[in-house]
Amino acid sequence: MKSSKRSKKDLKKSAPETGAKKRAIDPSTLRRVLTVSLVVSGLSIAVASFFPDARLWGLNQLAFYPLPIRIAALVLMALAWVPAARIRFARMVDVVCDRLTSGYRAVPLAGGVAALASFILFYVFRARTRLLGDGELVMRYTELQLEKNLSAAGHVADIFGHESVAPGTSVLYFVAGRVASASGASPMTGLVVLNAFLGALYVFGVVYFVWKLRASPPVSFFTSLFLVTTGTMVLFFGYIENYAALYLLGSLFVFTAILSLTSRMRVWVPIVLFVLTCVANVQGILLAPALAYVVASRLRGGGAVPRQVTIIVLVLTVLATVGARSSQLGRFFLPAVSTPDVPGVFSVAHMVDVVNELFLLLPMIPFIVAVSFVGRGVRGDAAPGAKHTGFVVLLLAPFALFLFFFNPELGMARDWDLYAMLTLPLIFLFVMSAERGMKVWNAGEHLRRVMLPAAATGAVALLAWVGINASEARTINRIRAILSYDTANATYLYESIAMHYRRDDRINAAIGTMNEAFEFSGDPMYLYNSSLMSLGEGDTLTAVDGFRQCLEIREGFPQARINLAIQLYNLGEWEELMRVCTDGVRLEPQNPYYHYYFGLYYEESGESELARNRFMFCLRQPIPDDMRKDVEAALERLAPGE
């Protein structure tokens, strides 16, 4: 019996392909799975294109375009299914792949051309708005750094001393802003050019990496397609955020880690890139479990890491997440139960947002999942790293936990860039699954059938996303559509929109937006800002009413009280001015503004001594130069003998 059992085991080991074939999906089923999954992606985008106000922000990018453009895009996606076009496109892809692999210089040349073309596209179609808050903050921080009279080393030390989230990226932005300023351009131009350059490097890295994979033409094409048409590419279109450098370096880490697992790259390369990624943005720490797998594999001579080690690292990752949630970092996690401002982890709204996030980052997510599903359980090591499934698991797990549990604070629909790097593990799950099943299923033929529809779907989704950010009107329409169903910290976005209107001298639109923020939140600060803009437009009465209302809501609002006092003085409303200043002295006895207006009132009333005492009190306080001049002039008027 022992001998018989042993022989059966030996038989199984000697015929791995047979075992794979038994579990393989038959060709017709495979074709249907791939086709249906891609049709689901296309139909989802098509249907969502007519519902701009629905909670479909990961799918409805086309909904913010005129109807003719929407129809043209959808027709293009439909025409990509024409058999003759699909066959010709597949042949063209094969020819290109063959030529790129036939010469030593072909790939670097193709990568260089693609990178240059990408740089131009990134700059020409750059984001035209600095909405969503973070871009504005990054720009202000860069400008403040440029104003400091520090050496280069001093700037770096200062940034690392104050910027805890993305110090490396902040240094890059500072350098770009400084170079632009030195050449006579605006710092903003420097930041846009930097982002375009980072994107060009990313495209070159994609071409080089796919070539190094030495995969079959269909898998090479789809790998390139997914890497280039992800929604995260928007980061490089002049989108001033703290994630462009993170995504580039994180991608390079994953590329080199995969090559290191197959002994085509020294292990120190992904280690250095991991450190640089973390310096660029602290979110890079999510790559630590994957790095642990790479190091463990190289310690074993490049072999697969035992399943137990993968499980241990995975458990430690989960425990670290639980520990972070229970620590001071807990404020960055979504609550288990929904609140009026933030949906809970297990809420329907959050689950919808997760799906939206995946569609926004990877418009062909159903297709990627389908390929990964049909590739499961197939034996063979055709793909580079195919025996290293644990690497993909440890790459995917931290980002999955991040996607489900992290609280984006502004609403996931707005902070989509936080999750940009989620695309990497999903794409490489596709690479390993697809290439692994090639020999068994002849999957290359079936992938060729959907090459053109997949390319059209990815291109339409990406171009629609880019076009939104390249247009102020479409960007604002999208934000307002989101605010119709997701009001988490909505006033932050209202304020951002208002700031953008102010930069474009559309003051009435800015005033209206600030009033919307006030009506939504009840925070008098927004009404105060609205009143200041009304004052700047010469509408003094509206501004005065706004300042009064601010003080009714919040008595201790010194800016509103001082501005109200100034305007009441200009209007000659002495009685109300004295009431305002009396309350001001009660709340802030040392504030010189109220004493100054008391002095003016007493001077007007002929009570010179009382006026002089108030003005002298003002001079003993730290006051602005223009106010000091006015006080000194008043004292001269009150001088004896005049």
Written overview of the protein:
The chain contains 32 helices and no strands. It starts with a helix and ends in a 5-residue tail after the last helix. The protein is mainly α and 642 residues long. Mean pLDDT is 84; it is low at 1-22.
Distance N terminus to C terminus? 126 Å
Give the overall shape.
Answer: elongated
- Total number of beta strands: 0
Rg over CA atoms, rounded to whole Å, is 31 Å
| Model regions low in confidence, pLDDT < 50 over at least 5 residues | 1-22
**Percent in strands:** under 5%
- Which structural class is indicated by helix and strand composition? mainly alpha
> How much helicity do the residues have?
over 70%
SS element count, helices: 32
User: What kind of assembly state do the chains in view correspond to?
Assistant: single chain
Tell me, rounded to a whole number, the average pLDDT.
84
Question: What's the main sheet like?
Answer: none
Please give the structural blueprint:
Layout: H1 2-14, H2 16-23, H3 27-48, H4 67-79, H5 83-100, H6 106-124, H7 134-147, H8 152-162, H9 167-182, H10 187-213, H11 217-228, H12 244-261, H13 268-280, H14 288-299, H15 307-326, H16 348-361, H17 365-374, H18 389-405, H19 423-436, H20 438-441, H21 443-449, H22 451-469, H23 472-483, H24 490-503, H25 507-521, H26 524-536, H27 540-553, H28 558-571, H29 574-587, H30 592-605, H31 608-619, H32 625-637
Helix pairs in contact: 3-17, 3-21, 3-22, 4-22, 5-11, 6-10, 7-9, 8-9, 9-10, 9-13, 10-11, 10-12, 11-19, 11-22, 12-13, 12-14, 14-18, 15-18, 17-19, 18-19, 24-25, 25-26, 26-27, 27-28, 28-29, 29-30, 30-31, 31-32
